[in-house]
What we know:
16 strands
Amino acid sequence: MSAQLRIDLDRLRGNVRVVRERVAPAELMIVVKDDAYGHGLERVVATAAAAGVRWIGAFDVPTGVRARRAAGEHARIFSWLTVEHDEIAEALAAGLELGVGDEDYLERIAANARANPAVVHLKIDTGLHRNGVRAERWPAFTSRAAELERAGAIRVAGIWTHIAEASDAEDDASRAEFDAAVETARAAGLRPEVRHLAASAASWERAEFRYDLVRVGAFCYGIRSADGPDLPGIAPAASLVAQVESVGDGAVTIDLGALDGLPTTLAGRVTVGTPAGSRRLLEVGPATSRVAAWPGAAAGDEVVLFGPGVRGESSATTLGEAIGTVGEEPVLRVSPLVPRVSVSPPANR
Ligand SMILES: *Cc1c(COP(=O)(O)O)cnc(C)c1O
């Protein structure tokens, strides 16, 4: 197979710079779950850390441990999946900061703290009901956390929540609950360094949601929101590229298909990039696909399935929109067997 998922590290750096400038004085935590949204965790973390990003958002502990290796000892790595004893010990040994939205989890973490206090960020549920301590239990939770902090078992570095980013009104209500929760935590004697609740969309659009820190994944990779606007200065970092195998009947056959993760439902619905500009994607077969031909098309020519648009291709989000999903989906679906290739070296490495 000649297909590649090319990761342009200059574009990644450019996106990170634009997001950081936009949210300042709040700080950026770059979110790297799902192997950095399919872009390859190590290259993304190393690039972001070299560009001066201090905070990495890692979701689970194995991702956090990998991020620690790639980012070095000074990075602050936040991991928010609730886990059991073995993984807590591993997380604390790697110096991860743990997101805690559950009373029992706080006790398990405190029980695993050794020489140094475990660093935690307490999560209030502000309406999403996925994880987080409900408002009615929050006063007891924060006073228990203060007690564990005084005992030297934990240090509460942050207060956080996750918001729906579905409607401004809901998000405003979540933010009011969040402010009240921070007040309650302060009254309990906690002095969190950072408050964080916004992901890509809210941190971009709404200054009052930035607080001290924003957790941004999608926009750092150049993935705009489905049905959302283009973003000035932000461009897709990943391009999915395949080669022409053969030409005939007004179409070219490329060596990339459904088995490589290309959604079959894209056929007939989108255009892709070619040496002659945009052409329609006609058919997605298991191992190959067909694209409308252009004058002079030849075996070995490159076709871009999604990317920043330099050869007339659509963005991953435009592909997602064509099949009723989000822009992360076409990137995450690319088979792990398709090689990921960096197309510019990380700075300072
Ligand atoms: C995935 C995730 C983010 C980042 O979301 P984007 O929309 O990709 O910026 C932030 N916070 C949490 C808790 C997440 O799970």
